[in-house]
Every structure is written in structure tokens, then in C-alpha cells.
Write the C-alpha cells for this entry.
Amino acid sequence: MLSHYYTVKGYGEHEIIIQKSRFICYTERVTTEEEAQRFIQQIKKKHHDANHNCSAYLIGEHDQIQKANDDGEPSGTAGVPMLEVLKKKKLKDTAVVVTRYFGGIKLGTGGLIRAYGKSVSEGLREIGIVERKLMRVIHTKIDYTWLGKVENELRSSTFLIKDIHYLNDVEVETYVEEEKKDSFTDWMTELTNGKSEISEGEVTYLEQAVQI
């Protein structure tokens, strides 16, 4: 598992007009080629009357699967520039479809490359990109008398609280980077004068919105 990576926030759409042609960018997060193809077919079905439904996707930790499709546009003028935007932004597990309704003005090879690239770039900016960081969830069990101090200290730190469970004791779940879990444990032990019970939980990805 990668320690961190960037991907699209999820499903979204964004439309721009270039020389009277409509370019509608659709995005989706996918983890398999089957998911990517299913998403592309959904958009094609939705816009069966469009002139083109061009697509590109990147899948896998090391971008093992990369595909681009011009869907009738001149070779290399749509799918490839769309894929290049995904690669430039270092996105993973992302599929994009750009639907074009021709407006009557021919753009030429260079114009098409710029238009499809711009459609994806602007679409990603509007829909959103997230960074996924691999984190360990640390469980800290404390008496209720320690809750105020522990919660305040955590909220003023760089650590993020995942959840707080109010049971016989209080259990605070915190996202901690793997390499910081020992220092976190030492800090929490000192903070509670050794009155906390600390254990390691699941490893999961934490998502946070970013601008890239």
C-alpha cells in the first residue's frame, strides 16, 4: 500500500464552452479496469447523441493500467492529452470522460489538444482532488476526568481525531502516521500521567482535499 497518493474526489461533472462547442468533463474514482469501462459506458449512454465521448484512465499503485480513447476525434487529439493531465497531476485510480457537442467551428489538431486538456484540468479543479494518507488508528482509553485535557491537546496538535466513544471509560480514536505512533504513545502517556490505555487499531487511508 502506498503511504500517500492523489486521486479525484469522486464523481463529478463540469462544462465549458470553447468556440461554440460544449465540452463536459466527467470524473470518477475507479480501482479496476472494469469499473472504468462501466463508468465510460454510462456516460456514453447518457450522451448517446453527442459527437464524441472521449476517455482516459489511470489505475494501480504504479499506474499499471493506462488507457486513452479519442472516440472519433483525430488520433492523439483527445484521449492522450486528457491522460497527460492526469499524469501531470500525479493522480491515481481516476477515470475521466469528456463529452463534446460540436458547435460548428473546427478547432484543428492543436485546438483540440488544448480544448480536451483544458476541459479535464478545469473539471478536476472544480470537482476536487484529495490526498489519501495511510494512517494507523490509535485507541486511547481514559477516565472521563482526563477527557477535556486530552481532547483540547489533540485538537491543538497536528493529529486528527477520528471518533470519541463515550462508554464506561472514554475511548478516543486518533489518526496517526505509522512513523509517529511511538512518539504519539509517549506523548499521550505523559499527558495523562500514565493513566491511559493505548492500543493500535486498523490501518486506513485518511482523505483531505488539496489544490494541485
About this structure: The chain is about 30% helix and 40% strand. The chain has a mean pLDDT of 96. The beta strands are 4-8, 12-18, 21-29, 52-59, 65-69, 94-101, 129-142, 160-166, 170-177, 197-210. The first helix runs from residue 33 to 46.
